[in-house]
Amino acid sequence: MPPTPSVPSGGAGRSVPADPADPASPRYPEAARTAGSLAALDDHLVDCRACPRLVAWREEVAATRRAAFRDQTYWGRPVPGFGDPQAAVVVVGLAPAAHGANRTGRMFTGDRSGDFLFAAMHRTGFANQATSTAADDGLELRGIRVTAPVRCAPPANKPTPAERRRCAPYLARELELVGDGVRVAVALGAIGWQALLTTLDEQGWEVPRPRPRFAHGTEVTLRRARSEDPGPGTLTVLGCFHVSQQNTFTGRLTPRMLDDVLERARELAHG
Which CATH number does the domain housing residue 157 bear? Predict the structure, then answer.
């Protein structure tokens, strides 16, 4: 039986309730916008209970468990981003998988989607190993970070628009805290693409109107709308099919296709 994932930044054992009707609540996602560090953001995130439907589902899954994992203790909480805290490349997915990250407590870890993604990161030099099985398996990412616009496992992998918007401050603040070194953002799938462009628009990047449509291989370079804003003057957003089994098992997304996107991200980041 693998060890229970440790709670980021000392959040273990807390039971601070969130009030979804009160944006001033310290556990409400809006309050995450004031987090002073990634550790503080993670500490806030893992206690979030702002979306009743998602809270009920993630905890039900953690209690009932899949037969293959019945002897394991599930994480069953919101999942923080993972990777280099000063990454030049950020990968934005959709949400934790019910028996993947919701079980292991680490983004894209413990399911076949993660296997596909981290194997590609290893081939392209972003990861020290090709597998990601548990929060303490020794995996390290270099120059890249993985995150998502929704941090709790949703039923049928389909968060509602309201849940996506309520969770948005976590992605926004994480992008800010990773810092000025981010040069490239890779969006996995249409929902990640839409959420990322919405966040960047709100942060002062010049997102074209109408917004670019998602497609695999799409490349959009954004500039800051306000010249006084700190940080790099441009950010390139790359579109990539999601690493879901629906795409990888059917050949819609192949290892070579994902490698090409990550290699392009590296080229742009160091260009």
Answer: 3.40.470.10
